[in-house]
Amino acid sequence: MNDTDRGDFRERIRQNFARQAAMHTIGAELTRVEHGMVEIELPFDVKLTQQHGILHAGIISAALDSACGFAAYSVIDAEASILTIEFKVNLMSPGRGERFLFRGEITKPGSNIIVADGRAYAISDGPAKLIASMTGTMMVIRGREGITG
User: Fold this and answer.
1) Conformation bin of residue 17: beta by default, left when phi > 0, alpha when psi is -120 to 50
2) Given a cut of 80, is residue 54 above it in pLDDT?
3) Is the pLDDT of residue 90 over 60?
4) Residue 139 pLDDT exceeds 90
5) What is the mean pLDDT of residues 42-50?
6) Position 122 in a domain
7) Secondary structure class of 134 (helix, strand, coil)
8) Does a structural domain hold residue 33?
9) CB proximity list for 58: less than 8 A, separation 6 or greater
């Protein structure tokens, strides 16, 4: 598959991200879109924490899933769509930071199944700190009513 088969994947990803109410609800922003890689950033908000004041694992998982899913959009044809069918998240360090960066990268592109890896980082003063990783499996959807690219 070449770049013309995918259409303008950057614009398609931006439009799909804008329609994703979950990311809007948590205040996430799409900050980088490349072939095979997407980054999403999120400012710290106490409303997104668990009882110890750190970013909730569900928020981390949701943002990583979106980053990996949108990375998958960058490697499929313009008429197709993506649905996550499986993921595993490893929480490595407490989610403490002023901002958070979620990066999804394609590990194995495919015509029906795509594997992506994600990394979540806490950003404050000093170097970014890795707080979580994800491996996700996405299914390419074509011709299914109600699910479009």
Assistant:
1) alpha
2) yes
3) yes
4) yes
5) 97
6) yes
7) strand
8) yes
9) none
Q: 142: which 2 tokens?
A: 């074509």
Tell me if residue 124 falls in helix, strand or coil. coil
| Domain annotation covers residue 146 | no
Lookup: tokens for 20: 């994703």
| Domain count across the chain | 1
* 8-state DSSP, 20: -
From CA 54, how far away is CA 96, in angstroms rounded? 5
Q: Give residue 35's domain range.
A: 3-141
pLDDT score of 6 more than 70: no
Q: Which of the four pLDDT bands, split at 50, 70 and 90, describes residue 27?
A: very high
Residue 149 makes CB contacts below 8 A (sequence gap 6+) with 12, 16, 73, 76, 78, 79, 80, 81
Q: How far is CA 115 from CA 44, 52, 82, 129, in A?
A: 29, 33, 12, 24
Answer yes or no: is 111 within a domain.
yes
Residue 24's Cβ-side half-sphere holds a number of Cα atoms within 13 Å equal to: 8
How far is Cα 132 from Cα 2, in angstroms, rounded to an integer? 32
pLDDT at 3: 44
**What CATH number is associated with residue 137?**
3.10.129.10
pLDDT per residue as tens digits for the range 109-128: 999 999 999 999 999 999 99
